[in-house]
Design goal:
The complex is a heterodimer of chains A (about 120) and B (about 110). Chain A has about 120 residues and is mainly β. In chain A, about 0% of the residues lie in helices and about 55% in strands. In chain A, a hairpin with a 5-residue loop joins strand 4 and strand 5. Chain A is globular, with a radius of gyration of 14 Å. Chain B is built from no helices and eleven strands. In chain B, strands 2, 4, 5, 9, 10 and 11 form a six-stranded mixed β-sheet that branches. In chain B, strands 1-3-8-7-6 form a five-stranded antiparallel β-sheet, with no helix packed on it. In chain B, a hairpin with a 6-residue loop joins strand 4 and strand 5. Classes of the chains: A mainly beta (about 120), B mainly beta (about 110). At the A-B interface, strand 5 and strand 10 of A face strand 4, strand 5 and strand 10 of B.
Amino acid sequence: SAVISQKPSRDICQRGTSLTIQCQVDSQVTMMFWYRQQPGQSLTLIATANQGSEATYESGFVIDKFPISRPNLTFSTLTVSNMSPEDSSIYLCSVEDPQGGLSGANVLTFGAGSRLTVL
Amino acid sequence: GQNIDQPTEMTATEGAIVQINCTYQTSGFNGLFWYQQHAGEAPTFLSYNVLDGLEEKGRFSSFLSRSKGYSYLLLKELQMKDSASYLCAVVEGGYQKVTFGTGTKLQVIP
């Protein structure tokens, strides 16, 4: 399965600043996904990043707050802009790994996540 | 949209069997995943069901009933290392969007 590297692994940020999270995959993938996991919560999809086109955002998430870049098939960035304490969360990058076989499932493989704390 | 429900927490004894249930409502079901997430780590894939029935993989099995909007994850011969959160995730429609449930935190005790 794909190997995903995310950085930073964690950071402490000041209110009002912005932070960019990087995601590097060891193989070319069509779609990359950005999730948020708030403390004690499950994963919420922020957006889907496709190479060569604008990211597709889920309800409740906007490009101005979470701009995404996808310059090639192995790399993406997510920026958390104008941060507030409510943005304190783990942000995870993921890609689909086709399992093949009878199920034909595209399993999501996740990076280790970036834990942001906003003061 | 989707609505996915799981118990918040469960406790089970080492060596025992535990069943974690997941119910869902979706407009276009296209498969269901179970993921395991240890504290501070990324989720990892456990199982995938798209047809009704039981899928067995070692100590873990997953069951799906599409007509009832219901799945469960069965963990046998529990080990302490099985203490983790277990996330039910539903794949919706042609867009293949994956929506996660809130997760069940399982604690295995001696």
